[in-house]
Amino acid sequence: MDHSAALLEQNAQLATRVADADPATPVPTCPGWTLQQLVRHVGRGDRWAATIVRTGEFADPREVVGGKPGDDVDGWLRGSPRDLLDAVAEVGPDVPVWTFLGPRPAAWWIRRRLHESTVHGADAALALGAGVGLTPEVAADGVSEWMDLLATRAAGEGPGPLDPGTTLHLHATDDGLGEAGEWMVATDDGRTVRWEHGHGKGTVAVRGAAADLLLAVLRRIPVDDGRLAVHGDPAVLGTWLERTGF
């Protein structure tokens, strides 16, 4: 998929969604945040990533140039992902730069920021009682990107997200996704996450639209939400969700 185009689209959706909303509206899925704080987090995050791409090194997000919206919040928010895309074009998409997972190609930040916008756009929508506006393709890629992050993260001292011998199967019910809408997830010795696309029998399986699966694995909606069907051992799913904060 075109991550750059999707990033701009998700950002525009967020900007449109919050344009006439009260900035003091609480965001229940981000406890303690208001819409104003969420918008600043998303816009500053894009500009922070752009700074990293241009320098190749870690940057303090509090010191990012243009990191505050000023009076034109809408223009600032809409311009933030464009700053990142311009930065990647300037340095080249394959140039290695700093990330919190170690050096990655500059273009890595486009997909990462896409799904930061995807999730926080959903946060804003849920706060306002609106539809999340995620296409199956974008939502499914968000699930895969989340699995990639978890699989790349070094195993800590505590237990991994799945106990040894247990597996998780996610199955998106949207038409047209094919294998891109199914995920088989396990761990090596209960520690390091490994996953692949495909169909199989898991210790626990969750079926639902890709957007709802994304919101569930990121703990934006409860797993007993009526839009999801859970088969097998629900305790395994509870363990996964409890141990996959990032």
From TrEMBL:
Source species, domain of life: Bacteria
Residues passing through the membrane, by range: none
Pfam families: MDMPI_C, MDMPI_N
Residue ranges of domain MDMPI C-terminal in the record: 137-238
Single annotated GO MF: metal ion binding
Record InterPro entries: DinB/YfiT-like, Maleyloyr_isom, MDMPI_C-term_domain, MDMPI_metal-binding
NCBIfam families: maleylpyruvate isomerase family mycothiol-dependent enzyme
Record PANTHER family: CONSERVED PROTEIN
Protein name (record): Maleylpyruvate isomerase family protein
Lineage: Bacteria, Bacillati, Actinomycetota, Actinomycetes, Pseudonocardiales
